[in-house]
Specification:
Elements: H1 2-16, E1 28-31, H2 36-40, H3 48-55, E2 60-61, E3 68-76, E4 89-95, E5 98-105
Antiparallel strand pairs: 1-3, 2-3, 3-4, 4-5
Amino acid sequence: MKKTLITFTLALSMSACSLFPDAYKTPVPQGNILKQEQVSQLELGMTEPQVRFLIGTPMIADQFTPNEWRYLFTSVYATDKTKKSEIDKLTLTFKNGILVKIDPQL
């Protein structure tokens, strides 16, 4: 009788954890929120300051490839209310401070 009661209590206590809802996790958006409208205003031949004014500072400006700017956006634990970027990845290539290539990766 005692073993049955202990077994029943253990089984009930282990299954009780599944009755509660999952813990709240704060959404963590990171990177540049870009809109298609902003990116469509980019034109080849623009200078670096013009691009920075239009879409902001890049998420990654690599020291080994300083002529490439990468705009990235990720979101961990996103919900329906979390801000989202229309473009998650964008690579801009400059030559002598002039925009020569736009590579949006949707």
